[in-house]
Amino acid sequence: MKRITTTALYLLLLGVAGSAFPVWAEEARCESFAALERTQGQVRVSEEASPFPQRISSFPYLLCPGDKVQTVSQAQAHISHPGGDLVMAENSLLTVNSIEEVELETGAALFHIAQREGARFVANTPLVVIGVKGTRFLVSANDERNDVALFEGGVEVERQDGQEMAYYRAKDISEMTFDEYRRHQNQAFRDFQAAFNQAFNDYKDQVMAEFEAFKRGIDLEPGRQLTLGSDGEQAEAVDAPVDAAFDTLQQQLGSWLR
């Protein structure tokens, strides 16, 4: 009987049960520019070339163009990107499109984007395009409405279809009467999901927004929230003080960016 050397035995085991050993020299899937840095709860990644999502247990996990990151209930995910960082809330789906662009397909995410000379970063939803100028903002998207709440810096918001919007503006807190301020404060008792799922026209009535003009692009100011929807066929946008529920969510997600 031939003797099997230690080296031969190791190679034999590696060939038979290779999947049980770590593959240190695995070839990178792409020239990655983004990474999944941290998760909480169930978070899955669907690679562009695969229909099957996978749970990630080792970090950072490099993301390629076309990869989708999905969170379920009570889950969060932190993604780093050359433009900055973002934290996805629960029940959200986001696609990493390119070094300059991501798309939040549904749910909510907080973005903290650094200002870079000569560089442009774009955050999309199925409805809106958000041009970023170095900022901290929260985006939410569902079938009824899309919201962009700005906390620092500046963003410009347009519709994906380029359609002109009827622009409504609600009063600043300093401009409200006592009764109007009391109505505004009542929003603080809602949680994010209640605010997120509120019908667009109900929200427009609640914030007492008044029509100002038709606009194709809107520059949002810090402390304001732009809510996009429609009244029948007419595209509309409501500019109002940041909803208390959205502010609470940005504080929760922002704790991962400190």
TrEMBL record:
Source organism of the structure: Marinospirillum celere
Keyword field: Signal
Leader sequence residues: 1-25
Protein name as annotated: FecR family protein
Protein biosynthesis recorded as keyword: no
Pfam families, alphabetized: FecR
Entry superkingdom: Bacteria
Gene3D superfamilies: 2.60.120.1440
Domain FecR protein: 67-156
